[in-house]
Every structure is written in C-alpha cells, then in structure tokens.
Specification:
Radius of gyration: 21 Å
Structural class: alpha/beta
Shape: elongated
Number of strands: 15
Number of domains: 2
Strand order of the largest sheet: 2-1-3-4-5
Largest sheet: 5 strands, parallel
Strand content: 25-35%
Distance between the termini: 64 Å
Helix content: 25-40%
CATH architecture of the largest domain: 3-Layer(aba) Sandwich
Low-confidence stretches: none
Number of helices: 8
Order of helices and strands: EHEHEHEHEHHEEEEEHEEEEEH
C-alpha cells in the first residue's frame, strides 16, 4: 500500500483527485491539506510515497513548500495555467496536471509515476526547484524553517547573505536564518541591481550600505546601516562600483 497526500487550497480540486484515486485501491489517501503549512506537517507525519501538490496556494506556494521538505516524496503537480511553471515542468520531465483535468489524464500521470518510481525523481525535483526559484513571483521573498516555525523573509528585509558550510546565513533585523542553498544559487536568483556578490562568502543588499572603507591591500569593508561590517574583495569592489555608478 502506497500512502498518498493531496495538498490544494481548493476543496473542489481535492475532491476531484480523491474521486479519481478510487480507481487505485493500492493507493491509500492518508490526508488532505488546504495549504503548504499543513502539507509540510502531513509529509513529516505520514511519509507518503506520492503527493498531489497545487502550485498557487495562499501563505506559501507549492514550490516554496517543497523547498522546506528535507526528503520530498514523488510529486504530481496540479496547477491552473502558469506558463513559467509549465515550462519548468517540461524542462525537467516532471509530470503535472493542468486544471481542469479528467480521469484519462489523471491515469496517465499515475502510470508515469509508476514507471519512474525508484529512479531519479528526487534529483529531478531538486532541479525543478532551482528553475522555479528564478520565476519573478518566486524571487521577491525567501521561505525558511526556523525550528518548527516557517518564516517568510521579503528580500528587501535582507541585510546581507553569508556562506556557512552547506547553508547560507540570511541576516536581517531579527537576526539570521539558515537556508540550505548555495551562494551561487542566491547570486543567480536575487536581483543583481539590488544584491551584489561582494566577496566569495558574502552577498550584499546595496540599500543597506552606508560607506565602503579601504582595508588591507586591494580589499575593502562595507559598513551597513545596522553597523555590520562585510568584506569586499577586489572583484567585489569592481562589481559594487558598477552597480552604484561610482
């Protein structure tokens, strides 16, 4: 028996998936969730083999929810038309159901999931999330887990980002939060006119800079409004001058 979750904020959409699942007695529906917060808790509790996940949901969307799951299960996405999301799905050969869908299309998705079980699904999901993060709707905030709580950080609240082994520290007025991503990832997804890689281990929000002082040979130090001092390498200084028009 394979455990299944439905995560969708629309009751009608959940009921349709539930109805179509009745044709598959080997798939046990263990929970229905109305938002991503509930979804994360249910995934942790039930450890499902498969989830049906909506993209457009309140609070956090489907992509953001998956980023917070340590070992995401297999996913069949359900979505209303979203050109960016559909291109991302097709680029990474991940199946999706475009609402409204019928039993025949649902059956094809289940057949594809069966064929791909125990293959490279987790890797594909990871690649998809990297692509999805570049969507304009995704790069205006960062969603992190803070203990058992979920924190949504608007990008304009970020002071700077700092490399920390396999994580990145996101520094804000409330302290720092850890995100299991790389500096290269954030350099790609954040607005390059607002965030500059000042150093191999630092990305700066230029709105937070009060001054840039010389420091040892060709290096500099950026002084932020918060009083924090962030290293600026020779290459980073060149980038900052370009963005600041100096």
């Amino acid at each position: 028996m394979n455990k299944v979750l439905i995560i969708d904020d629309e009751p009608l959409a959940r009921s349709i998936v539930k109805e179509y699942l009745q044709a598959y007695p080997e798939l046990e529906l263990v929970a229905e969730c109305g938002d991503g917060f509930e979804g994360i808790k249910a995934i942790q509790q039930y450890q499902p083999s498969l989830i049906f996940l909506d993209i457009q949901m309140p609070k956090i969307n489907g992509f953001e929810m998956l980023e917070l799951v340590d070992q995401p299960p297999a996913v069949i996405f359900t979505t209303a038309f979203d050109e960016f999301a559909i291109k991302a799905f097709e680029a990474h050969a991940i199946d999706y159901l475009l609402k409204p869908f019928n039993q025949e299309r649902f059956d094809k998705a289940i057949a594809k999931w069966r064929d791909q079980r125990n293959t490279q699904a987790p890797a594909k999901t990871g690649e998809l999330l990297e692509t999805a993060a570049q969507s304009p709707s995704q790069n205006q905030r960062i969603v992190v887990k803070n203990g058992s709580k979920i924190k949504i950080i608007p990008v304009f609240d970020i002071y700077y980002l700092e490399a920390a082994d396999d994580y990145v520290k996101i520094h804000t007025s409330e302290g720092y939060f850890l995100k299991n991503k790389t500096m290269n990832y954030f350099e790609q997804v954040l607005d390059e006119q607002q965030f500059v890689r000042s150093h191999r281990s630092y990305i700066l929000n230029i709105q937070q800079i009060t001054r840039i002082d010389p420091y040892e040979k060709d290096n500099h130090i950026a002084i932020l409004r918060s009083g924090a001092k962030v290293p600026v390498s020779r290459g980073g200084y060149g980038k900052l001058k370009g963005v600041l028009g100096l």
